[in-house]
């Protein structure tokens, strides 16, 4: 079994838990609800990206995958000022990312949500009439390169996989799902 297959199997319950709890229908039913959802994602990504970049095994590849700026762009397009965005709550505490392999496990969750984001983007565009320019840049983050970015992440995971690292990668992915669930599903 590949590490990617193991991650998918072992984190499936956590993935299903967050998917059920987030109530996407309600969170994209209006611009206000959607903006509140993006604000929660922003609070997660700003903290996570800062923590993960310091330990990322390939910082250049990591930076290409960062999404906090896209979230800030969407929030501005939806009427928030830079000052309001800067004052948004941040996700604390974040799980420790002690090693590059822990970052890879955490990235599995974030990169996987990017894949799901393409489906969410279609719903947001249809329901709210938004585009990349008017508030849907985060969910369309990689555009046409989404599949290629996922494949390149899979290559990074495979290169890092070993009997010594795989348990840490899977544990980090599971913990990231837990933190993201608690943060996104908390009533602000």
TrEMBL record:
InterPro entries: Haem_Oase-like, Haem_Oase-like_multi-hlx. GO terms for molecular function: heme oxygenase (decyclizing) activity. GO terms for biological process: heme oxidation. It holds the Pfam family Heme_oxygenase. It comes from the Bacteria. This is Heme oxygenase. It comes from Microvirga subterranea.
């Amino acid at each position: 079994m590949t590490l990617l297959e193991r991650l998918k199997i072992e984190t499936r319950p956590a993935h299903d838990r967050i998917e059920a709890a987030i109530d996407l229908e309600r969170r994209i039913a209006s611009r206000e609800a959607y903006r509140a959802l993006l604000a929660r994602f922003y609070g997660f990504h700003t903290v996570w990206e800062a923590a993960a970049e310091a330990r990322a095994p390939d910082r250049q590849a990591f930076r290409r995958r960062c999404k906090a700026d896209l979230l800030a762009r969407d929030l501005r397009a939806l009427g928030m000022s830079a000052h309001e965005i800067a004052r948004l709550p941040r996700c604390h505490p974040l799980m420790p990312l002690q090693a590059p392999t822990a970052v890879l496990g955490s990235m599995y969750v974030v990169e996987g949500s990017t894949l799901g984001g393409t489906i969410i983007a279609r719903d947001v565009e249809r329901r709210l009439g938004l585009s990349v320019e008017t508030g849907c840049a985060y969910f369309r983050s990689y555009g046409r390169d989404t599949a290629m970015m996922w494949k390149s992440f899979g290559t990074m995971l495979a290169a890092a996989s070993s009997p010594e690292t795989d348990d840490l990668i899977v544990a980090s992915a599971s913990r990231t799902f837990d933190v993201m669930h608690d943060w996104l599903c908390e009533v602000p």
